[in-house]
Amino acid sequence: MKRTTGQDRSITRHWRPATQAVRGGTVRSEFGETSEAIFLTSGFCYDDAEEAAARFRGERPGMTYSRLQNPTVQMLEERLCLMEGAEACRVQATGMAAMSAALMSTLSAGDHLIAAKAAFGSCRVLVDTILPRFGVETTVVDGADVDAWAKARRPNTKAVFFETPANPTLDVIDIRAVCDLAHDAGALAIVDNAFASPVLQRPMEFGADVVAYSATKHMDGQGRVLAGAVLGPEQWMNDTLLAFTRHTGPNLSPFNAWVVLKSLETLDLRVRRACENALAVARFLEPRLPRLLYPGLASHPQHALAMRQMSAGGTILALFVDGGRAQAHALLDALELIDISNNLGDSRSLMTHPASTTHASVSAEAREAMGITEGMLRLSIGLEDPADLIDDLDRALGAAGL
Ligand SMILES: Cc1ncc(COP(=O)(O)O)c(C=O)c1O
């Protein structure tokens, strides 16, 4: 294996993110293939016993076992590093594998974590239930309230964790302010950037130490594979994350890594087009609903902040109806084009009722505190013609009495 001319990181790191998404990290085999090869291998062979021993001692380069290294997986990790402007990346089997590995590798019994209350359901379960079982103290705060982060800090605060925009309430958090507060306390700032994707927002530019993804969302973005990624400083990656994951094994398969690699080639195009569609749909929906949240509209409470941190309003909208679950379900059931599905960031537009799906495992009180009402729906906008999406919504709103 050799890097073909022009693939050296000293050259590629100067390319812009959209170029990185197509070419970053490519390593060609001796066949000079155009498209990245899939190395579906669990292990590697050695020329002699001493070569194996030397690799295990870390004295010679080379791969040993696909739980630790794999050529296809490494191409994806290198590409994501270059896109994000990060020192190091480790991809994981799912977004939740990425979030749990980032948090569990960093935190030990007796440490304290501050997290934003608005978060994907499983992230809240991790913070509220799983981490405390291992002796980690956790506090959830209103992520938009910078003072609340400041007041929640304790001498043993080791990390802060938040998503922005958040799933599904679209709370926007001031990345710079919260990361500065974390650093003042000597804590690590971990940001889940799944909703924005690296196309719209690069949290490290605002001070995040670690950025984690559900790559299932925009990165694959075509409903095929689950994947996750953790990006951060090289030393933290080696000493903290890898020290955990090399023994717990939440690895991404080389095949799924290859699917995500191919998807990244169109990520910029897909996300930008979906954002344009989402803005058109948001403008149509706003006057028809009691309440609509979309970071790209001036009516969003943190619109100005969202526009400072993100290059567009995103692909996700939160719709609110007054008639509770019955009316929300009626709207879903009347859709003909948009699918009822709890995935997001997909080329197909998808709508879900968070209270009964993605956030059903969160307590009713926590849901209420987050602003997830029974009349709330989350709409992920895809790549269809926006006029067809608007026609479908127009008819479904009418059928639901809106
Ligand atoms: C913000 C956010 N983080 C993490 C996840 C978990 O990702 P995965 O489903 O790939 O495990 C999701 C999934 O919906 C999400 O929306």
Notes on the structure:
By secondary structure, this protein is α/β, with parallel strands linked by helices. The chain has two domains: 77-264, Type I PLP-dependent aspartate aminotransferase-like (Major domain) (Aspartate Aminotransferase, domain 2); 267-399, Aspartate Aminotransferase, domain 1 (Alpha-Beta Complex). It contains 17 helices and twelve strands. The protein has helices at 9-12, 17-23, 49-56, 71-84, 95-106, 121-133, 146-152, 175-184, 197-200, 216-220, 234-248, 254-264, 267-285, 303-309, 324-333, 364-370, 386-399; strands at residues 88-92, 112-116, 137-141, 157-163, 188-192, 210-214, 228-232, 291-293, 316-320, 339-340, 350-352, 376-380. The strands form two sheets. The chain has a seven-stranded mixed sheet, sandwiched between helices. Strands 8-9-12-11-10 form a five-stranded mixed sheet. Strand 5 (188-192), helix 9 (197-200) and strand 6 (210-214) form a beta-alpha-beta unit. Helix 15 packs across helix 17 (386-399). The protein is globular and about 75 Å long. The protein starts with 8 loop residues before the first helix and ends with a helix. Mean pLDDT is 96; it is low at 1-6. The structure holds pyridoxal-5'-phosphate. Residues 94-96, 99, 120, 122-123, 163, 167, 192, 194-195, 214, 216, 226, 228 line the site of pyridoxal-5'-phosphate.
Helix-strand layout with pairing:
Layout: H1 9-12, H2 17-23, H3 49-56, H4 71-84, E1 88-92, H5 95-106, E2 112-116, H6 121-133, E3 137-141, H7 146-152, E4 157-163, H8 175-184, E5 188-192, H9 197-200, E6 210-214, H10 216-220, E7 228-232, H11 234-248, H12 254-264, H13 267-285, E8 291-293, H14 303-309, E9 316-320, H15 324-333, E10 339-340, E11 350-352, H16 364-370, E12 376-380, H17 386-399
Parallel strand pairs: 2-3, 2-4, 4-5, 5-6, 10-11
Antiparallel strand pairs: 1-7, 6-7, 8-9, 9-12, 11-12
Helix pairs in contact: 2-4, 4-12, 5-6, 5-11, 13-17, 15-17
Bound molecules: pyridoxal-5'-phosphate (PLP).
